[in-house]
Design a protein that fits this description.
This protein has helices at 28-43, 100-107, 134-141, 144-153, 159-164, 177-189, 193-207, 211-227, 230-240; strands at 4-9, 12-17, 49-53, 58-60, 71-72, 76-77, 89-93, 96-98, 110-114, 118-120, 156-158, 170-172. By secondary structure, the chain is of the alpha/beta class. The radius of gyration is 18 Å and the shape is globular.
Length: 251
């Protein structure tokens, strides 16, 4: 079964994640599907804008915890997190985009969300941390204290608050995120495609200037997380469907 479907709408490539029975949790098959779709967007000169979306009920719950972190050669985690792109990519979000799902949204350039959408980094509730860019892309896309609140509590925000703080470009009625994203893509396609790419590349150079240091900081935090007891207890509690019994280790 195909779990990432693509279609062309003029100069726009639409990629849909379709694994709703697993809340669009990202496994290797979805990663390879996203990677293939974005390779097509990157390499086809007739495609000027991309849209990445999920299903009517959910964008993505992030990594499938029954497997390992899926990666691809060009895109890194999920086929997108470390990808170097020069064409605009719009996230069209219905339902929740949490954990790695939100990190995928943060890796996009623009966000259109329906009123059903929620965004969150709940990893801390499971004794984990965001490892796919959320530690630094969250504070870039959100006010710093709101990003801290989301990462330290694991709580989510809705589309309306996301719009108010500048994370979301447009809010639609339920079921309208893809149509809203297509309308935004058409506005971009009405502009010169070469200068759009030039502008994208320039903006990316500016905001990604500190990426190497930010990934190093993420790696150090990941190493510390692995050494802490929270991860094991959090995952046991998750699979046993019970509240975690946390214990603070001094030092």
């Amino acid at each position: 079964m195909t779990v990432v479907r693509t279609e062309r709408v003029g100069h726009v490539l639409v990629a849909r994640i379709e694994r709703e029975e697993k809340r669009n949790a990202i496994n290797e098959e979805i990663t390879l599907g996203i990677d293939a779709a974005l390779n097509t967007l990157d390499d086809d000169s007739d495609l000027w804008v991309g849209i990445l979306t999920g299903t009517a009920k959910v964008f993505s719950a992030g990594t499938d915890l029954t497997g390992t972190m899926p990666t691809s050669a060009r895109g890194g985690e999920y086929g997108i997190i470390r990808r170097e792109r020069a064409k605009p990519l719009i996230a069209a979000v219905e339902g929740f985009a949490v954990g790695g799902g939100f990190e995928i949204v943060l890796a996009c350039d623009l966000v259109v969300a329906s009123r059903t959408a929620t965004f969150g980094l709940p990893e801390v509730k499971r004794g984990l941390i965001p490892t796919c860019g959320g530690l630094f892309r969250g504070p870039r896309a959100l006010p710093l204290n709101l990003a801290r609140e989301m990462m330290l509590t694991g709580d989510s925000i809705d589309a309306a608050r996301g719009y108010d703080v500048g994370l979301v470009n447009a809010v639609t009625e339920p079921g309208g995120a893809l149509a809203g994203a297509l309308a935004l893509a058409e506005r971009i396609c009405a502009c010169g495609p070469n200068v759009v790419r030039i502008s994208m590349s320039a903006v990316n150079d500016v905001i990604a200037a500190d990426d190497a240091e930010d990934w190093d900081a993420t790696a150090r935090a990941t190493h510390a997380m692995v050494a802490a007891p929270d991860k094991d207890e959090g995952m046991r509690a998750f699979f046993e469907k019970r509240p975690p019994n946390w214990e603070l280790v001094q030092g």
